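Retry 2 of 3 after timeout on previous attempt. Resubmitting structure tokens to design endpoint.
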């Protein structure tokens, strides 16, 4: 028995002349690729994907969990860590695999040394982004989870608009958002909630503080729920009360930049070209030096995945992939504005998934 994701991986292995791929998950090196390929959510194990069979090796804490979550995989049991390499070796021998890939950016040097010493006759080949490339295009199950996470994030934002008031600290607002998401269906957060106010909004990754929010100053909130393992991402900028003319002007520029990049989205476009569409609007308005980060990124099981939509991105956006679109202008000493929505790339455009209300000047 196989699965569509393993079948896709096997085609990639053939392209790279590999007999198998080792995907390791450990407490010290979390690896969502194992979950993506197998459904297994435990914190320790090694997935062996060969051309004719697939296995998961793990210790006794996870044997029953693997049987339930990964029925298409043969379970290889070991009782202690030194036995792990023996189990891997037996699996590779059973399928005649001799040229075997490992994930170079997800494996510790110590684990690689152990495998090299314990797997005689196996050529271990460093690979990069084999599974990540597959993860870029979402299937129906993944999109269902992402839509649920996004809808919950939208609801959390609408809730906080009814709750936020002058004098609340950034930390209080962050907690209200986290509490709402966790009590309305989120299994957790895609990332720590960011709430910035006043001059702190000039920091793209501002950490919420005890600072009290004031009337009329820039505020932005960046957050995302996690549902069934999948992330959402949303940023909104606004003010309580009446904004000054500068906020209104900066917001309008950022909104035009987002509109320009949204119009550029479609299957086959380069990520850097989408970034360029937004960046030109901001540069033409005289704020090019105040938009330092890339326009956007993919997301799914992780909050940052392929494809990238930054100014130096080498990625081409495929149909079925997701990307954030989040231009911003950050002015030290005053503050900043960022507007972020997420879009599903289609053959001839994009579907915007986020629906939370935006400030209207």
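Retry 2 succeeded. Sequence:
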């Amino acid at each position: 028995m196989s699965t569509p994701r393993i079948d896709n991986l096997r085609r990639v292995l053939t392209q790279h002349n590999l007999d198998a791929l080792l995907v390791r998950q450990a407490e010290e090196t979390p690896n969502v690729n194992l979950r993506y390929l197998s459904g297994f959510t435990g914190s320790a194990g090694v997935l062996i994907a060969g051309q004719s069979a697939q296995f998961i090796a793990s210790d006794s804490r996870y044997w029953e969990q693997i049987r339930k979550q990964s029925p298409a995989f043969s379970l290889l049991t070991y009782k202690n860590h030194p036995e792990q390499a023996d189990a891997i070796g037996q699996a590779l021998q059973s399928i005649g695999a001799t040229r075997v890939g490992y994930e170079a950016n997800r494996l510790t040097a110590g684990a690689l040394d152990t495998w090299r010493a314990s797997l005689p006759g196996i050529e271990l080949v460093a690979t990069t982004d084999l599974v990540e490339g597959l993860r870029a295009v979402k299937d129906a199950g993944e999109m269902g989870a992402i839509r649920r996470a996004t809808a919950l994030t939208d609801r959390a934002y609408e809730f906080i608009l009814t709750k936020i008031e002058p004098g609340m600290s950034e930390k209080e607002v962050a907690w209200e958002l986290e509490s709402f998401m966790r009590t309305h269906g989120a299994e957790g957060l895609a990332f720590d909630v960011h709430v910035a106010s006043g001059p702190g909004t000039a920091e793209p990754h501002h950490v919420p503080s005890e600072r009290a929010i004031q009337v009329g100053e820039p505020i932005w909130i960046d957050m995302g729920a996690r549902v069934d393992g999948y992330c959402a991402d949303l940023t909104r900028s606004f003010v309580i009360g009446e904004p000054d003319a500068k906020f209104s002007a900066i917001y309008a520029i950022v909104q035009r930049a987002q509109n320009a990049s949204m119009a550029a989205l479609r299957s086959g476009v380069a990520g850097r070209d989408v970034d360029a569409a937004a960046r030109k609007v901001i540069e033409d308005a005289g704020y090019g030096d105040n938009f330092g980060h890339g326009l956007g990124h993919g997301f799914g099981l992780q909050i940052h995945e392929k494809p990238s939509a930054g100014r130096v991105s080498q990625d081409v956006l495929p149909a079925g992939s997701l990307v954030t679109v989040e231009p911003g202008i950050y002015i030290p000493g005053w503050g900043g504005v960022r507007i972020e929505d997420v879009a599903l790339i289609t053959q001839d455009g994009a579907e915007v998934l986020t629906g939370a209300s935006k400030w209207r000047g």
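Attempt log closed. The chain has a mean pLDDT of 97.
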